[in-house]
Specification:
InterPro entries: BaxI_1-like. The protein has 262 residues and is mainly alpha-helical. It contains seven helices and no strands. The N and C termini lie far apart (48 Å).
């Protein structure tokens, strides 16, 4: 399977056969040359991916809406920390855990609801829920557009493109870290997260990189389906797509808040 920028997809089995268990082969592993006994599990389909991704999105939207309506921005930081820990467990755990993916979705919803409340109500000029609607619309619009781009083959996922996207993600991650460290010594740090021309340009750059990373996510999911991995791995794909969607939503939230700020 081609390398992907999303760590969640590194858990997907690679190679031929069904989930690397030589599903459907004959004459191997049997002294009589007969096909092995039927597996209890089944290969993953696109319906599995769509269903699991829809479940995670609905759960995230539900807890996010409740957190926003409860006006509880203080829950954003602890939810972010808990979500980070859960994501590490999901990535490094060897077995698929739907419960952990569901827990991650619920916690991420609390984080997004809290941070959305901050952006909508706690700046010098309250932006209101309009900025949230714009961010959601932008996120879903980019997701749909990149899905069309991938399915039509307008942009092919090649090893060169994959390396470029991974390098770009690493680059912006380093810039964000440097900006954070500099903010302890200089007001505003490098200015990458300020409502200025530089801040707007950086958010646009991050949105572009996040959009292209969807191509790698779609490609990894497509290859997993075609290689016949276990249907349970659809939860991994849903988790991976969720992480990219969260990043994209946060960047749109920042961008629209910059554009509407005084």
């Amino acid at each position: 399977m081609r390398t992907t920028s999303n760590p969640a997809f590194k858990n997907l089995p690679t190679g031929g056969g069904y989930a690397n268990f030589d599903y459907g082969r004959t004459g191997q592993g049997s002294p009589f040359g007969q096909a092995p006994a039927a597996q209890a599990a089944r290969p993953m389909t696109i319906d599995d991916v769509v269903t699991k991704t829809a479940i995670t999105l609905v759960l995230t939207a539900l807890t996010g809406t409740l957190t926003y309506l409860a006006a509880a921005p203080g829950l954003a930081l602890p939810a972010a920390l808990i979500g980070f820990v859960i994501s590490l467990v999901i990535v490094f755990r060897k077995k698929v855990s739907p419960a952990l993916v569901i827990a991650y979705s619920l916690v991420e919803g609390v984080f997004l609801g809290g941070i959305s409340y901050v952006f909508a109500n706690m700046f010098a000029r309250a932006l209101g829920p309009g900025v949230i609607v714009q961010a959601v619309a932008g996120t879903l619009g980019v997701f749909a557009a990149m899905l069309v781009v991938y399915k039509t083959g307008a942009i092919r996922v090649t090893p060169k493109l994959t390396k470029w996207i991974i390098g770009a993600i690493a680059g912006v991650a380093v810039l964000m870290l440097v900006n954070l460290l500099m903010s302890f010594f200089i007001d505003g740090g490098l200015g990458l997260r300020q409502p200025t021309g530089l801040g707007i340009a950086f958010s646009l750059l991050c949105i572009g990189i996040a959009a292209f990373s969807f191509l790698l996510d779609f490609d990894a999911a497509d290859r997993a389906i075609r290689s016949g991995v276990d249907s349970r791995f659809a939860w991994y794909i849903a988790f991976g797509l969720m992480t990219t969607l969260v990043w994209l939503y946060l960047e749109f939230l920042r961008l629209f808040s910059y554009l509407q700020s005084d």
